[in-house]
Amino acid sequence: MPGERKPEDDADLIRTKFANLESAAWWKSHQLDGVVLYAWGSPRFRKVAKAIHEAGIFLVLNQDNGGLISPLAGFSGWLEEQQILSGLGQEYGSVASFLKRVLRGMTIGLLATDPLRAAHLKQGDVIACVSPAAADHYRKLCRTYGGTSLANRVKVIPHAVEPSFDFIGYAPGKVRKITSVGRWQEQIQKRPGLMRAVFQRLLGTDAEVLIEIIGERTTELESWHRSLPPGFQARVFLRGRLNRDQLAAVLRSSRIFYSPSAFESFGIAAGEALCSGCSVVAGGSASMASFEWFVSDESGTLAVPNDVEGHLAALRDELANWDQDRRNPVSISKNWSARLHADRIAAQLLAMNA
Q1: Of residues 38, 107, 108, 105, the one with CA closest to residue 73
Q2: How many angstroms separate the Cα of 224 from the Cα of each of 125, 218, 232, 239, 270?
Q3: Are 293 and 133 within 8 A, CB to CB?
Q4: Dihedral of the CA atoms 342, 347, 350, 354 (nearest 10)?
Q5: What is the pLDDT of residues 253-301, one digit of tens each?
Q6: Those residues with Cβ within 8 angstroms of residue 21's Cβ, 6 or more apart along the chain or in another chain
Q7: Does the predicted model carry a pTM greater than 0.85?
Q8: Three-class SS of the chain
Q9: Within 13 Å, how many C-alpha atoms sit on residue 234's CB side?
Q10: How far is it, in rounded angstroms, from Cα 291 to Cα 283?
């Protein structure tokens, strides 16, 4: 990592000058077998990727996004994502922001950013995407950048989940509870207003459901909680920020993980929930590429339309799936732990460099 050492840095973290990260000699001096570079294929870090490649080190380029990073990845999906990222149609969005994003992507993006991104991606032995949908977008993009040979380097390698998130062997098991985790101060991405509206409607029609909201207790969240009728308020818990063990315990006891987000590059909290035996509910959207994967194998439901009514219906359907034994927490945990746990991801990476 570049920059000065910080008190919270782990003992084995190497800090260095940024210039060293762009030096093939510096990388070669560490005698590494491989590097996983988290740099999003960004033009800004293309010289870092080039230096690692020139040092003869096996290089995995992690792409922490849904793949719609250029009009060349799929124009209609990219255009939808610009609308979502600008918050168009939401209280905090604007037409001006949307038009600015589209204009920039169709000019500077195609003429400058894309060629430099291509130069970055061509340095990698593996272009690692965090979901199957993202990989499909990247393959299309890479065929344009460098033909079939570059597209063939694209692989699905999701973000790693700590093995402490699991369900196998735990008791007493799940209760009728929905958990949401987020940075609730981020209005456009996390959509806390949508979450509040959905939960308030759900509480009015389901007398047994419990709700846990994890993350910073914003002024809006606390005000909303105080305004709830006493019977509703008693079933909604604002837990604030939790450590990893506390979060794992909440997820093990929950049936459903609910994400109201407008967009997610991956959704690590959803991955942790799946490994903990929860099913997932989120909006169906081009900007929620990982969640198309997360709801597969009887692991959840996507909300269509992606609004209050759609999300409410999806949560009700998912609660019914649990009531009717169409969701198995042991199977969900087993399937997703095999895909997402850190030891499995590490083994996958090592096998690629065998």
Answers
A1: 105
A2: 50, 10, 11, 14, 24
A3: yes
A4: 180
A5: 999 999 999 999 999 999 999 999 999 999 999 999 999 999 999 999 9
A6: 2, 48, 51
A7: yes
A8: CECCCCCCCCCCCCCECHHHHCCHHHHHHCCCCEEEEECCCCHHHHHHHHHHHHCCCEEEEEECCCCCCCHHHCHHHHHHHHHHHCCCCCCCCCHHHHHHHHHHHHHHHHHHHHHHHHHHHCCCCEEEECCHHHHHHHHHHHHHHHHHHHHCCEEECCCCECCCCCCCCCCCCCCCEEEEECCCCCHHHHCHHHHHHHHHHHHHHCCCCEEEEECCCCHHHHHHHHHCCHHHHCCEEEEECCCHHHHHHHHHHCCEEEECCCCCCCCHHHHHHHHCCCEEEEECCCCCHHHHHHCCCCCEEEECCCCHHHHHHHHHHHHHHHHCCCCCHHHHHHHHHHHHEHHHHHHHHHHHCC
A9: 5
A10: 8
Question: CB 27: neighbour CB atoms within 10 A?
Answer: 22
Take residue 253 and report the two structure tokens written for it. Answer: 């006891």
pLDDT, tens only, 135-168: 999 999 999 999 999 999 999 999 999 999 999 8
Residue 306: name the closest of 338, 283, 333 by CA: 283
Residue whose pair of structure tokens reads 């799936």 in the numeric block = 321
